[in-house]
Amino acid sequence: MTILKVSRLVKRFGGLTAVDGVDFEFPKGKISAIIGPNGAGKTTFFNMITGIYKPDEGAIELDGKSIVNIKPHQITELGIARTFQNIRLFGSMTVLENVIVGMHIHLKAGLFGSLARLPKVRHEEEEAMAEAYRLLEYVGLEALLNEQANSLPYGAQRRLEIARALAARPKVLLLDEPAAGMNPRETSELIGLIQRIQRELDITVILIEHDMKLVMELSEHILVLDYGTKIAEGGPDEIRSNPKVIEAYLGKSAILPETEKAEVTT
Ligand SMILES: Nc1ncnc2c1ncn2[C@@H]1O[C@H](COP(=O)(O)OP(=O)(O)OP(=O)(O)O)[C@@H](O)[C@H]1O
To answer: Does the keyword Glycosyltransferase apply (predicted)?
Structure first.
């Protein structure tokens, strides 16, 4: 079953076509990946799904309903949450506060209610705190809940971004290079976390990643972009042995030293 479907999707920036007629169906409840060289159009693709960019052509459907022309915060409410390639936390806020911010779409009280300190509001705040704590436990950051976000090590900041995205209670979680800058131990912990999110929380995960070990270990379905076009799609084994993908992207790992092969940077 498909949860998210894009058809003939196009995005142009002036004379450059960043995404050029891409069709793809993301299966519900699975982990999919989008791979390809730098500049292939992966982040632009995410930005269209999340409403940051409006496609020039084509359709995007979540559960069979169009989400083109819908504002980013409404798309979050419909069930799509994301993390960013360059971490975007509120650096001077605490770890806990960052997760509570991610919940705002589900908090009903609003400003007036908060100022008036109504009992109903206090109850809602307590519930939000409890849920934020549970999410921090889930990603393994509960011991750091009162730390300032920008004081956390890099890998922990990436996990905090995931907790904040989960706070929106998404059906689909988009992760833009979640392993970037992580050491091998942090990356294997991240692989475990993403698997738990998919299996235990029943969330569809779509990730952009250059770390091929992570991509091949996690993904059931892979979309390969090159110069904005889809050059291949399929399971990890098909993708690994696809000549077009090897030529455009994966082949580059063959010339890297053994220690760097897991991370194909272009
Ligand atoms: N806002 C923008 N204005 C103009 N050009 C853009 C804009 N955003 C992206 N591009 C261009 O579109 C192309 C695709 O960029 P995009 O960031 O989507 O690639 P990517 O596959 O995510 O690359 P990377 O792996 O480096 O993150 C690039 O040539 C980029 O320079």
So the answer is: no
Q: Ligand 1, from 43, 46, 82, 223: best to mutate by most atoms within 8 Å of Cβ?
A: 43
d(CA 202, ligand 1 centre) in Å: 31
Name the residue at shortest CA distance from atom 29 of ligand 1.
Answer: 39
Hey, whose CA ends up nearest to atom 1 of ligand 1?
13
Per-residue pLDDT of the chain (266 residues; tens, 9 = 90+): 999 999 999 999 999 999 999 999 999 999 999 999 999 999 999 999 999 999 999 999 999 999 999 999 999 999 999 998 887 888 889 999 999 988 876 665 555 555 566 667 677 778 888 999 999 999 999 999 999 999 999 889 999 999 999 999 999 999 999 999 899 999 999 999 999 999 999 999 999 999 999 999 999 999 999 999 999 999 999 999 999 999 988 885 533 444 444 444 44
pTM confidence score: 0.89
- CATH 3.40.50.300 residue ranges of the chain are 1-79+170-266, 88-169
Q: Which CATH architecture has domain 1-79+170-266?
A: 3-Layer(aba) Sandwich (3.40)
Residue ID of nearest Cα to ligand 1 atom 6:
13
Architecture label for domain 88-169? 3-Layer(aba) Sandwich (3.40)
**Mutation pick for ligand 1 pocket among 11, 20, 44 (CB with most ligand atoms within 8 Å):** 44
Contacts of 80 (CB under 8 A, 6+ apart): 4, 49, 50, 62, 67, 170, 171, 172, 174
